[in-house]
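Researcher: Structure for this, please.
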Amino acid sequence: MGDPVSSLRDYQAKAIDRARQCYAAGARSVLLVSPTGSGKTVILAAIAKGVVDNGGSVTVLVHRRELVDQTVRKLMAVGARANVVTVQSARVPRCSFLIIDEAHHIAADAWSAVALSAGAPRTLGVTATPERGDGRGLSGMFERLVVVAQPSELIAQGHLVP
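Model: Predicted structure, token format:
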């Protein structure tokens, strides 16, 4: 299957390192912000693999069924065993590490209830839009913020098109 970190783009590997530094410094929750098309699912799969390889258990919370399939494929590609559930799931497995895709939804009652039921001591949120549709930010939901890249940087590097 290969080393998932060796196949990461430079900005993705740096984001993972910065998130690890946040957890090492005592953070329990980190929000990764990265543009659409930048490989957020690749990043979360690599992080999940690291957690699992170190004996942890991972649950990934996604917004829609279509995202379950995409996320499972990325996790399988790197050999990371994790539970992937939608917010509509009746049961969320308890875990040591919770990853929340589309994390800008976390302030909604249904999302926060599902996230709490996972019982995870550490949480990673991933989003392209770090504010809710009602304009409220997420500062009360996550302790640390890691900006993966700006769209202009990724366009200049040829990873996104204008």
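Researcher: Any notable elements?
Model: The helical segments are 10-24, 40-53, 65-78, 109-117, 151-156. The chain has one domain: 10-156.
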